[in-house]
Specification:
Blueprint: E1 3-13, E2 18-29, E3 34-38, H1 45-52, E4 60-65, E5 68-69, H2 75-85, E6 86-89, H3 101-110, H4 118-131, H5 147-159, E7 165-169, H6 177-192, E8 197-200, H7 204-207, E9 212-217, E10 220-221
Parallel strand pairs: 3-8, 3-9, 6-7, 7-8
Antiparallel strand pairs: 1-2, 1-4, 4-5, 9-10
Helix pairs in contact: 3-4, 3-5, 4-5, 5-6
Bound molecules: adenosine-5'-diphosphate (2 copies).
InterPro entries: AAA+_ATPase, ABC_transporter-like_ATP-bd, ABC_transporter-like_CS, ABC_transpr_LolD-like, MacB-like_ATP-bd, P-loop_NTPase
Domain ABC transporter: 3-231
Protein name: ABC transporter ATP-binding protein
Length: 231
């Protein structure tokens, strides 16, 4: 199992009140699964994604990522774990304008503590560009590409270090519907080839594509996750 959360709660304490963003949730995601998380604004989607991505820590509960209890990790160890195990895709593509498509995708490997040779990096980047269908744009800069193309570059960058799971936040939020469909097509193809996906989306057309569809309301799952039957 790639992800196992047990009794995870997240409380934001402010001077005036405590907000229970997540209330004792359980979540299992199996390797190869395609999970969508939807729900109204304020229901806890971003909070859950930050916890899953080790960008924030839970107030209570246990979270195992690839079998490791990450609730006990130091900040440094959590960062290492994040770089090795997790790929992120956001609504805004977060590419570096000064770098070519190729160099944007190569970046996680060049900065990784897992030393790769130049040839290894080159081959892996080419493979990922191929997977998202953007090889013909390798030497372009991000601002020379359409939004859909930029998002495909961001997907290639998220994939390049072979993460255990891709965490995806509203991937089509900045795209017209045609580019959005294209990006979702790429994600679907990756999942068919074995990549584990966990995606937050408002768009019912896209959440319906997932195998395991979860709905959050006020920090709790509406449909108790028989989440992630083994696939
Ligand atoms: P969603 O992504 O579904 O819109 P969030 O996870 O952003 O929901 O928020 C869940 C709840 O937690 C909301 O009530 C929100 O106001 C609250 N919340 C989120 N982040 C913070 C924070 N840093 N401080 C205080 N409250 C927060
Ligand atoms: P192509 O290989 O023709 O660029 P893609 O599938 O990579 O096709 O691009 C998706 C869509 O984006 C196509 O409809 C293409 O015409 C359009 N497109 C390509 N380049 C740009 C650009 N620089 N700015 C805006 N749209 C573009």
């Amino acid at each position: 199992m790639t992800i196992q959360m047990k009794n995870i709660s997240k409380v934001f304490e402010t001077e005036t009140m405590d907000t229970y963003a997540l209330k004792e949730i359980d979540l299992n995601i199996y390797a190869g699964d395609y999970v969508s998380i939807s729900g109204p604004s304020g229901c806890g989607k971003s909070t859950l994604l930050s916890l899953l991505g080790l960008l924030d820590t839970a107030t209570a509960g246990t979270y195992w990522l690839d079998g490791i209890d990450v609730t006990q990790l130091s900040l440094d160890d959590a960062a290492t774990m994040r770089n090795r195990k997790i790929g992120f895709i956001f609504q805004s593509f977060n590419l570096i304008d000064e770098l070519s498509v190729f160099d944007n995708v190569a970046l996680p490997l060049r900065y990784s503590d897992m030393k790769s040779t130049r040839t290894d990096i080159e081959n892996r980047v080419k493979e990922c560009l191929e997977l998202v269908g953007i090889t013909h744009r390798s030497s372009h800069k991000p601002n020379q590409l359409s939004g859909g193309q930029q998002q495909r570059v961001a997907i290639a960058r998220a994939l390049v270090a072979n993460p255990a799971i891709l965490l995806i936040d509203e991937p089509t939020g900045n795209l017209d519907s045609k580019s959005g469909d294209q990006v979702m097509g790429v994600l679907e193809k990756l999942n068919e080839q074995g990549t584990t996906l966990c995606m937050v989306t408002h768009d019912p057309r896209y959440s319906d594509l997932a195998r395991t569809r979860l709905q959050l309301l006020d920090g709790e799952f509406l449909n108790v996750p028989e989440a992630g039957q083994p696939v």
